[in-house]
UniProtKB/TrEMBL annotation:
It holds the Pfam family TP_methylase. This is Precorrin-6Y C5,15-methyltransferase (Decarboxylating). It comes from the Bacteria. The lineage of its organism: Bacteria, Bacillati, Actinomycetota, Actinomycetes, Micromonosporales. InterPro entries: 4pyrrol_Mease, 4pyrrol_Methylase_sf, 4pyrrole_Mease_sub1, 4pyrrole_Mease_sub2, CbiE, Cbl_synth_CobL, Cobalamin_biosynth_MTase, SAM-dependent_MTases_sf. Residues 78-205 form the Tetrapyrrole methylase domain.
């Protein structure tokens, strides 16, 4: 089972009613890996009264003489024909590439309430990895077919091994362009199973300027990654050690680090997950960005100090955080648009530059009370609904003789701007 696939926006699965007259829709994979068809396909075709598929699929199998066919273009007319066939008790066959239950047409058929049985072939991702001789049990699989490309890109930015199912306009060139600044190598597998099949190892920059034949699959790998499982056997799971880690879990300078109590709230407000891009502006130790990366988000840390320990901390926690060295707001120019931003350093000009990029959520920490009201006004002027709180934690500390006392940490104001709700 592939773990870490992004959720999609297809309709919820509808419970399947019993087929009238025993008729079902047989969904068969035929060619993604160039392997022989499922042995049950010949019998299903022989008894079919309707066969649906792309032109290349219909040409590749022995459709019985006189059997009605529908060549796939728009899916809705084919769904109507299939529903009519099932209602009339006429067996039907749908042909698809590879494993039709893997980001394929099975979901659409079930959502339409059609009874299905599936005869799978090898999926395109399994075929691409097999051609390259790579394991793929730790590879997260995401789709850019009929979807926004950004979540798929952010998965490839965040995780060491990601397979992207592509579509025209959301293929290897676009993936390569979107991975500029991330250290990745790409395997582009074009037209798997066809006579002109081709596998190409390339860099994101080279992929962005090349022309690729459809259909193709892109495998994105971090350096030294072969697609195998992480040590904890979970490619995109929550971190085993949790989050809001103690300051001792990070290298930092002169206690310049977001304290654990504050970090817990900030990370919760940023809502990091696989498919989202988070900026950590004024990153310092990088603790906020690293904990977002531990929860699956792609992360860009922006820090003016070239000697800040962001890279060392990210390596210590086994995550890939892209570090941009420079002073905000100038350093923000040209970065991919974020879904959420943490502003841990800089003035109102940095916050204004962030809101100009329209991330869905912005979290800001402030130590000085006189900066709170101007920041709230700026966020509201940008269309953000604002919530704020002051965190003032006191930690248990040992005293001689076995007694305990409370040691206060510096109070911090946390502001959250939410673009998804109307400003009060």
């Amino acid at each position: 089972m592939v773990v870490g696939a992004l959720p999609d926006a297809t309709p919820a699965v509808v419970p399947v009613a019993p087929a009238v007259g025993g008729a079902v829709v047989t969904v068969a994979g035929v060619d993604a890996a160039g392997t022989p068809a499922h042995p049950a396909l010949a019998g299903a075709l022989a008894g079919a009264g309707l066969v649906v598929g792309a032109a290349r699929h219909l040409a590749a199998v022995p459709v019985p003489p006189g059997c009605a066919t529908v060549t796939l273009g728009p899916v809705e007319p084919a769904l109507c024909r299939l529903a009519d066939a099932v209602a009339a008790g006429v067996p039907a066959v749908v042909l698809a590439s590879g494993d039709p239950g893997f980001f394929g047409i099975v979901r659409r058929l079930r959502a339409a309430g059609l009874p299905v049985r599936v005869l799978p072939a090898v999926s395109s991702v399994a075929a691409a990895c097999a051609r390259a001789g790579l394991p793929w049990e730790g590879t997260a699989v995401v789709s850019a077919h009929g979807r926004d490309l950004r979540p798929a890109l952010n998965a490839a930015r965040a995780l060491p091994a990601v397979a992207v199912l592509t579509a025209p306009g959301a293929g290897a060139a676009e993936v390569g362009a979107g991975l500029a600044g991330w250290d990745r190598r790409l395997l582009v597998a074009e037209r798997l199973g066809a006579p002109d099949e081709r596998l190409t190892w390339t860099t994101p920059a080279e992929a962005a300027t090349a022309t690729w034949a459809d259909p193709h699959v892109v495998l994105s790998l971090a350096p030294d990654c072969d697609g195998g499982m992480r040590a904890d056997n979970q490619p995109a799971a929550a971190p085993a050690e949790g989050w809001a880690l103690p300051e001792s879990a990070y290298a930092h300078r002169a206690s310049m680090i977001t304290k654990a109590e504050v970090r817990a709230l900030v990370v919760a407000r940023l809502r990091p997950r696989l498919g989202r891009l988070v900026w950590d502006v004024g990153a310092g130790s990088g603790s906020v960005g690293i904990e977002c990366a531990l929860l699956g988000a792609a992360v860009i840390a922006v820090e003016s100090d070239p000697d800040a320990p962001v890279r060392a901390n990210a390596a210590r926690h086994g995550v890939d955080v892209r570090l941009v060295t420079g002073r905000a707001p100038a350093a923000l120019a040209g970065l991919p648009d974020p879904d959420a931003v943490f502003v841990g350093g800089g003035g109102l000009d940095v916050l204004a530059a962030v809101t100009d990029r329209r991330p869905g959520r912005v979290a800001v920490t402030l130590a000085a009370l006189d900066r709170v009201a101007p920041a709230v006004r700026l966020l509201r002027a940008g269309g953000y609904a604002v919530e704020g709180s002051q965190l003032a934690a006191a930690r248990l500390t040992d005293l001689p003789g076995g007694s305990l006392r409370l040691a206060a940490t510096n109070p911090v104001f946390v502001l959250t701007g939410d673009l998804t709700r109307e400003t009060p």
